[in-house]
Amino acid sequence: MKKAKKRRVRPKSSRKSSASSRSKVPGGRSSEAATLPPRNAALDTLRGLAIVLMLVDHAAAYWFDVRIELTSVRLITRLSMPLFCLLLGYFLPTDRRFRVVRLLQILAAAVAVNLVYWPLNHQLEILASLLLAAVVGTAMGRAAPLMLASILFYRLDPVSRWFDYQPTLVFALVGQGAMLRRFGIGPAIASGFALLGITISGQWIRPTDTHRFVVWFSLPATILVDLGRRFPDFRVIGLDWLGHHPLSIYVAHFYIIAAIARALGGN
Predict the structure, then answer these.
(1) 85 assigned to some structural domain
(2) Least packed by Cβ within 10 Å: which of 21, 188, 219, 240?
(3) How many CB atoms lie within 10 A of CB 26?
(4) Locations of Low complexity compositional bias (predicted)?
(5) Helix 80-90 to helix 41-64 angle, to the nearest 10 degrees?
(6) Does pLDDT of 160 surpass 60?
(7) Would you say residue 16 lies in a domain?
(8) How many structural domains are present in the chain?
(9) Structural domain includes residue 109
(10) Rg (CA), the chain
(11) What per-residue confidence (pLDDT) applies to 24?
(12) Using one digit for the tens of pLDDT, what is the confidence trace for 78-121?
């Protein structure tokens, strides 16, 4: 008597995996998200570092009236702003699809922060500039690195008086992040040196303008972001958590800073 051949049945999991592989890209992300880099612990850590530097900067400014000078701690804290901008530019979608929820989150945070910031400074805080940069950069898609050219119009920026960090400067640094994402570290280093040269020349940013210090740190920020994307598993416990919740912490810190400043007898 012949033995009946056993029928081999593929496990359900293997059938599901083959079907799901058609709708997802490596890493488990949907094809719709393929134009965005995956979440990265090292870049979250850098974002957390930027938040800590920002906290130190604002505490020094509002609690102790420390000025931005070559000899003050607020020179080092200038690294915070280009880190925020480069990371925003690095994560811009290249397919021109607006991430509406994220843009609304930035808008809500900008409104909440400026309820405190505007009465104190009569200018819009940087989140307003970052929101504009996110909208423009998304609309430009793969051409977002061209935002770098906005630095050439720094002195001509018609809305500069209304912004703490005017859009032409923020756009340029966001464009630097897009340059790194799109073309890699070599071209990004070249564009970073171009930004630095423009600043040092004094033709676009005056030598008395403290925003020049921000551009000085654009190259170190570029190198740090590149290292973050090369070593995505690197993390500093605590900093990566801060970097994973940037907007909520950003909003909360302004109210805490303002409350303590008022308690200390500030404005």
Answers:
(1) yes
(2) 21
(3) 8
(4) 16-26
(5) 150
(6) yes
(7) no
(8) 1
(9) yes
(10) 22
(11) 39
(12) 999 999 999 999 999 999 999 999 999 999 999 999 999 999 89
Contact predicate 219/226, CB 8 Å: no
Q: Contact, 175 vs 222, CB < 8 A?
A: no
Please tell me the distance from the alpha carbon of residue 201 to that of residue 206, in angstroms, as a whole number. Answer: 9
For residue 130, what are the contacts with CB-CB under 8 A and spacing of at least 6? 84, 85, 88, 106, 110, 170, 174
Structural domain including 190 reads: 41-263
For residue 249, the number of C-alpha atoms closer than 13 Å in the C-beta half-sphere is 18
Q: Is residue 99 part of a domain?
A: yes
Is residue 215 within 8 A of residue 199, CB to CB? The reply is: yes
Tokens of 37: 């880099």
* Matching residue, tokens 């081999």: 8
Phi, psi for 42 (deg, rounded to 5): -65, -40
